[in-house]
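Complex record, two chains
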Amino acid sequence: MKWNVGTKITVGFGVTLAIFVIVGAVSYHSVTKQTEAATWVAHTREVQNQLTQLLSSLQDAETGQRGYVITGVDGYLTPYTDGVARAEETRRHLAELVSDNPRQLSRADALAPLIADKFAELQQTIDVRKTRDFAAAQSIVLSDRGKKAMDTIRALIREMNSEEENLLKTRADAAQADARAAKWTIVLGTLAALVVAGLAGLILTRNIAGPLGNLTGVAERITVGDLSSAVAVSERSDEVGMLTRAFERMTRALRAMAGAAEQIAAGDLRASVQPQSPSDVLGNAFVRMTENLRRQIGGMVEGAAVLGSAASEIVAATAELASGASESAAAVSETTTTVEEIRQTAQLASQKARVVADGAQKAVQISHNGRKSTDDAAAGMGRIRTQMEAIADSMMRLSEQSQTIGQIIATVEDLAAQSNLLAVNAAIEAAKAGEHGKGFGVVAQEVKSLAEQSRQATDRVRTILSDIQKATTAAVMATEQGGKAVEAGGRQTEMAGESIAALAGSVTEAAQAATQIAASSQQQLIGMDQVAGAMENIKQASLQNVASAKQLETAARSLNDLGQRMKQLVESYTI
Amino acid sequence: MEKANAEAERILRARAHTLARAPRPAPAAGTMLELLEFRLASERYALETRHVQGVHPLRELTPLPCTPPFVLGIVNVRGHILPVFDLKKFFDLPERGLTDLHRMILVRGNGLELGLLADVIVGVRSVAADDLQPSLPTLSGIRADYLKGVSVERLVVLDLDRILSDPKIIVHEEVEG
């Protein structure tokens, strides 16, 4: 069986369709025949009708002729003229109608001279009657010439009528036979088509729907996740066979995926899945999933390690925290004691602040006294400055006088030098005098010695004077500096006065501040009482903290255990 | 007052006792040279007093143009116009510049009268002529020529006759006007 499903369906429905086409053609043919038969029936009726009219028009003409012949009145000629006019027209129409039938046509043609002959006889009669009399006309009529022509015409018309009747009968029989044949054809053809279509449906159902049903069952089981059912591999080469094989491959691939998933589920992430094709969504997703899982599990391994170590650290930290809380509780106890001490100190400070406030009031009084003292000091400095100026004048005079002394000393020195020279000259003169000059020489020597002594004395005086001048200069400078110092002292005294004034202001402010401090320290004392109460509360809270820290330690140990468990869990994965 | 005077007298006696010296031994037989001792720079020189007219302070020295370097200038001494020589130029001694303290030794000899510049005049003293040593081997040139001798106290005694008879000190220079 090499046919594919399309061919099968085409063949099945093609045969059925062919049968229906045949039935339709037959029906069409039959209907055409019936229509044709009906047309011929109408035609026959028309021919018979024309024949009747022709006969009638002839009879009308004859009737008019007879009336005129008998009466001689022109009014009776009216039917005659009408009949003559109609007869020829009707005959020509008849000839056209029967033009398809040669025998009838020959009869119609044969009618023409007969009618002409009849009309000629009638015209003759009428003419005779007109021209002559009734008797002449009657003789012509009695010649039977008109009657014979009329009989012949009647016979021909009867023949044509019967001919048409026969034709009609024949055609009706043929149409009847045709209709019967068509009826049988339609019935039998329809039955045959039904049978063929039924057979084709049955074959297709058995050949295609059966395997598709099986596959649907398998697909249903795959849909609910059951991959165990195997698809029987068919040898068929058509679409069903291909579908079966594709289904089988799909199932195999799904089973491979399921196997890989099973492996992953067992914790072995080394399973590598090969995608069936680049567009294999599931395969690619599986590859990415395994890669991501590998990465995530790797991250989780690290995370578990970090968590484990962090939990250990937290345990250590909470242990420290617990001990710290205990220490802080102890510290809080100490602090409470300290606060109590501070409260007593604050009480003391409050008392002292009152004492300070009193002291500050006294200081205000003292600073006012200090102000007066600095004013006195400023006046004293002024007097000192005047005296210093007097001293400076004296020193200047002293300096000038010592200059004068220096000049005098120079003069004395000069004198001594001249004395010396004189003594030398005297000695020279004495030497020139020889023995007589010896006594004079001694005197000259003495004079020289005196001159030398006076020179030495002036040297000493000069040295002393130099010292005096240095001392005087120093004293002048010292006096000057003293003057400046006194001036500076005056300024400083003024500044001190201002400072003391400012100090007095500050001391006043300080006194007010001290009063405020006293009030504040009173409030502080109250505040310290509150602090002591608060410290008691804190103490309670810190004791609770200790309990909480112990609980926290327990929780941290649980966390540590969790971290260890998680580590073990993650270690069960093989990356 | 009496007591104070007595006290003063006692003090003066004590000082006199301290200052008192044994008289100089009498000069030995032989000629004594009377010398005027003076200083040039830091060296001690001496001239015989027989040539010396006197010593004077060096005042109103008028420099003289167109003269050798050893002629300092001319001075007016009691109406006499005298030239002043600087011996240091002869002896190549360092110059210190002239001051009011410089002295001038007025000398006469060989028909000339002139002043010699001295830094310091020390005084007159007598030296035995025998004590003079003729010369020093270290001295040479013009100093050796002008030297009379050197005493035991290293006093350089100049021979003024030789200095004055030296033709170099006769100034005869003409300057092209």
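Note: Chain B touches chain A at residues 34, 36, 49-50, 52-57, 101, 103, 121, 123-124 (CB under 8 Å).
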